[in-house]
Amino acid sequence: MNMRINGFSGMDIDSMVKSLMTVKRVPLDKLNQQKQILDWTRDSYRQLNSKIVQLSNKLQQMDLSAATNTQKSTVSGNTTAVRAEANADAASVTMTVEVKTLAKKANLQTQTVLTTGTPDAKASLNTTLAQLDQTGPPKAEYELHINDKSLVFKDTDSLSTVISRINSEIPTANASYDEISGKLTITSRENGKVITGTGTGGAAMSSSLSDVLGLQANGAVKGEVNITTSSGTRKYETTGDTLLVNGVNLTLLETTEGLPSKVSTQSDPTKAMETIKSFVDTYNELLGLMNTKLSEAKYRDYAPLTAEQKKDMKEDDIKNWEERAKSGLLKNDTILSSAVASMRSVISGNLKVLSEAGITTGQYYEKGKLQIDEVKLKSALDSNPDRILSAFRGPSNDANNPAIFSGLRKELNSTLDMLVKKVGTSKQDADASIALKIESSMGLQLKNYNSRISDLDRKMTVWETRYYKQFAAMEKAMSQFQSQSSSLASYFQ
After folding, report:
1. Which of 44, 131, 171, 195 qualifies as a FRET site for 410, CA 20 to 30 Å off?
2. With contact defined as beta carbons under 8 Å apart, do 271 and 378 qualify?
3. Nearest to 2 by CA among 16, 19, 14
């Protein structure tokens, strides 16, 4: 409200207008308070949406067999030649691994050292094609045709540029240059695939760049690995550097050179236990937050403070007031009630197996919070991991009794659908500060509040101006009356 100069009458017009406007502002204050409650409620929903997305994403990762794998492979003997990682279905079989030869991918490689014209002047990554060309007068352009792709290079392009373009524009090939040996190599990215001298369209074409670099084709070479178990020895041929045997992924790093690697696989519930404990912690956090919001006390006498009310209050008093004003906004909320019921239903459907694994729902007043007996869980995973893990990640096609990870994700997805429709949140983004979509029921409510508040603000300005005009007219009338009165009085003196 603008400050106005009081008239000669001595009346405090500003205070009088302010008092009159206080009454007029009551509907506007109520609208602002209702809007504030809506904003706080949306923020509470947004916080919960973020937690739900986090749990849903974690469940998706946990549903992968690697997250609950109870098998572990270790390598002894030659530990540098082989790396081993057991799958969830790996057999507890000890294997002796002899890497006779490593597989090599097909490649194109320079046969002589690349130089700039003299034997001692070995090329570097900065050397240009014009400097490398020993085939005759330098050309303005050089072509390279590989695996149905054609590239054209300028004579001023460096080896670094050539390598970069090959790696970025030919997805089936990878180029590199060894400054020690002075040789450039273009290797097939695909195991067992040859590098073809074909350009765009698939036609065989000669490459002027191949002549400059002295490239020669080398075919793929298969690797040879002998694996021995108590049942005997088997020879494997490989086209790449990995091999899957007895549920164990073997990564072949180098030949064993007469010193074999020994791969042993045994049950190790450590990873599965960590996954289950992480799930329980996240589940309890979300369930606890929902139960808190549902049972939070509601203080109906604590409405949001107006700007005028805050002027006369201390910061701590404002904070304490608003804490009570925000309390209970989601008390008995139907979306949260439904979510809690569905989450607990999924757990209850698997409670028998969970109990065998030392996972229980605690006391009644804990409202479904899960508790873990780690000793019992480890024992259950050691003795019968398939039974325990099937409760978490299936297989289960029973709609009435789904596996925990997939069942919870389905229920949480339904909750997210309802929040998206009502609040305008995101089903994928866990960022609690992300902007909310206007095309939601609460977004439309907010839009309606803003429109009504804007209309009332304009009316407040009109009313305030009218009051000041009325008081100005009164001042003028009183001034005229006083002037007339003084004039009349002068006749009687």
Report:
1. 44
2. no
3. 14
Angstrom distance (rounded) from CA 19 to CA 12: 11
d(CA 208, CA 135) in angstroms, rounded, equals 10
pLDDT, one tens digit per residue, over 142-172 is: 999 999 999 999 999 999 999 999 999 999 9
CA–CA distances in Å: residue 158 to residues 136, 180, 217, 307: 18, 17, 22, 68
Helix (H, G, I), strand (E, B) or coil at 85: strand
Q: Considering the entire predicted model, what is its pTM? A: 0.68
What is the chain's Cα-based Rg?
A: 39
CB-based contacts of 291-294 (< 8 A; 24+ apart in sequence): 291/340, 291/367, 291/368, 293/44, 293/48, 293/329, 293/330, 293/331, 293/333, 293/336, 294/330, 294/331, 294/332, 294/333, 294/336, 294/337, 294/340
Quick: pLDDT tens for 375-385: 999 999 988 88
If 0-12 CB within 10 Å is exposed, 13-18 middle and 19+ buried, where does residue 297 land? exposed
Q: Are the C-beta atoms of 31 and 453 separated by less than 8 Å?
A: yes
Angstrom distance (rounded) from CA 340 to CA 295: 12
CA 36-42-44 angle, 5° bins: 105
Beta bridge partners of 372: 359
CA end-to-end distance (rounded Å), the chain: 46
Q: How far apart are CA 143 and CA 448, in angstroms?
A: 65
Between 13-24 and 441-491, two packed helices, what is the crossing angle to 10 degrees? 150
Element spanning 216, H or E: strand 215-218
Structure tokens at 412: 């949480």
